[in-house]
Write a structure and sequence with these properties.
This protein is an alpha+beta fold. The protein is built from 13 helices and eight strands.
C-alpha cells in the first residue's frame, strides 16, 4: 500500500500521477502517457530482495518511459523556468526581510515542538497577502530595525505583483563528466560545489572592481615573494542595506533520476508470472544527468556588469559553458513609462 502512495523504489506512485496530470493541464501541455493503462496493467509481483512490489506489463514499457519524459519536461519547462526561479528568489527574500516581525517568523513557526503541526497549518499562500497588508506601526518586532525590514518585504511583494522581478543574466551548463573526480559523487553535490565557488569568486571579483572604480586607482602589480604566485588581497564585503540589494543570486538545477531511475522499474510478461524483471536496455540511452547554474540580479541596470563578471570568473574553467539568457519581457509599468502619449 505504501508503494502506491509514495514509491521509494522507482518513484511511480499516486502522488506523481496526480501532480503530473494536474500541472500539465494547468500549463496547457500534453500529458504524454495514459494513467489508466498504467493502473490497468499493474500487478503485485515478487522481486528479490524487495519482496512484493508493484510491477507493470512489458507491453506498456513505452508508456512508463513517457511518464518520466513528462516529468522531465515539466521540470525543465515549467518548474525551472527562469521567471519561476526569479519569483522563488524574491519570495525567499520576502521571508528573510519579514522574519524579524514576530507574526511572520517562519523559523519560529516551524520549530519542532508540540505546536509545530498547528503552526505549520497557519502557513498558506495567504501569508504574502498578510505581509502586503500588514501595518508597520501595529507589528511586534524582535530586532530594532524590524519595521524597516518589514517595509522592504512589503516592497518586494509589490514588485512581484507588478512583475518587476529579478532578472536572469546567464546560464552555465555543467559538464558532470569533465568535473566529476570520483564516480560515487552525486551530481547535486558537484553542482552545489561549483555554485559555491562561483558565488565566492563573483563576490570577490565584483568587490575588487567596484573598489577600483570608486577610487579610480590603476591596478597595482603585486610583489612575488619566495617564487610564489601573487595573491589578490581580500577586500572586506560591505553588507547590503536591504535583502534585495545584493547584486546577484546563484541558483542550481540538476535533472537526475537518482534513486527514481526508470531502469529500476520491474515488468512481467504474463499475469500468472510470479516474479518481475527489469528492462534496463530500454532506458540505457536516456535520462543522462543534466546540470546548470543560473545567475540572477535584482538590479536591471547592472545586467552587463554581472554578465561580464561571470564571464571573467569562469573563463578557462573546464566543464563550465556560459549561455547569455535572452532579455526578459518588460513589465507593463516599464512599457507605459517609455511610451509617450499625444493628446489630440
Amino acid at each position: 500500500m505504501y508503494q502506491i502512495v509514495a514509491n521509494k523504489l522507482n518513484g511511480i506512485d499516486a502522488d506523481k500521477l496526480d501532480y503530473l496530470a494536474r500541472d500539465t493541464h494547468s500549463a496547457a501541455l500534453n500529458l504524454g502517457f495514459s494513467v489508466d493503462r498504467l493502473i490497468d496493467f499493474s500487478a503485485i509481483k515478487n522481486v528479490e530482495p524487495h519482496g512484493l512490489i508493484v510491477c507493470f506489463h512489458r507491453k506498456i514499457s513505452n508508456n512508463v518511459f513517457n511518464l518520466f519524459k513528462s516529468r522531465y519536461n515539466l521540470h525543465k519547462d515549467v518548474y525551472s523556468h527562469t521567471v519561476v526561479e526569479g519569483i522563488e528568489l524574491m519570495i525567499a527574500d520576502v521571508f528573510k526581510a519579514a522574519k524579524s516581525t514576530k507574526r511572520f517568523n517562519l523559523g519560529k513557526m516551524l520549530e519542532f515542538n508540540e505546536q509545530s503541526l498547528q503552526n505549520y497549518a497557519l502557513i498558506t499562500d495567504c501569508i504574502l497577502k498578510e505581509i502586503e497588508r500588514a501595518n508597520v506601526d501595529d507589528e511586534i518586532y524582535s530586532e530594532p530595525d524590524g519595521a524597516k525590514k518589514l517595509e522592504e518585504a512589503k516592497r518586494l511583494v509589490w514588485k512581484i505583483r507588478h512583475r518587476q522581478l529579478y532578472t536572469s543574466v546567464v546560464e552555465i551548463s555543467v559538464n558532470l563528466d569533465v568535473i566529476r573526480n570520483e564516480s560515487n559523487v552525486k551530481p547535486k553535490d558537484i553542482v552545489r560545489g561549483q555554485a559555491q565557488d562561483l558565488k565566492r569568486s563573483l563576490a570577490h571579483y565584483m568587490m575588487r572592481t567596484s573598489q577600483e572604480d570608486i577610487f579610480d586607482q590603476p591596478k597595482k602589480k603585486l610583489k612575488v615573494a619566495d617564487g610564489n604566485e601573487p595573491v589578490t588581497p581580500e577586500i572586506p564585503a560591505t553588507p547590503p542595506t536591504a535583502v534585495s540589494d545584493e547584486m546577484f543570486r546563484v541558483t542550481t538545477r540538476v535533472f537526475d533520476m537518482a534513486e527514481f531511475n526508470p531502469k529500476s522499474i520491474h515488468f512481467y510478461d504474463q499475469m500468472d508470472q510470479k516474479d518481475g524483471t527489469t528492462m534496463p536496455h530500454l532506458f540505457s540511452s536516456h535520462f543522462q544527468p543534466e546540470a546548470f547554474i543560473r545567475v540572477y540580479t535584482s538590479k536591471k541596470d547592472k545586467l552587463e556588469t554581472v554578465k561580464d563578471a561571470v564571464q571573467h570568473v569562469i573563463e578557462g574553467k573546464k566543464g563550465l559553458n556560459m549561455y547569455v539568457l535572452p532579455k526578459a519581457r518588460r513589465s507593463r509599468e516599464e512599457v507605459n513609462a517609455s511610451t509617450s502619449t499625444i493628446d489630440l
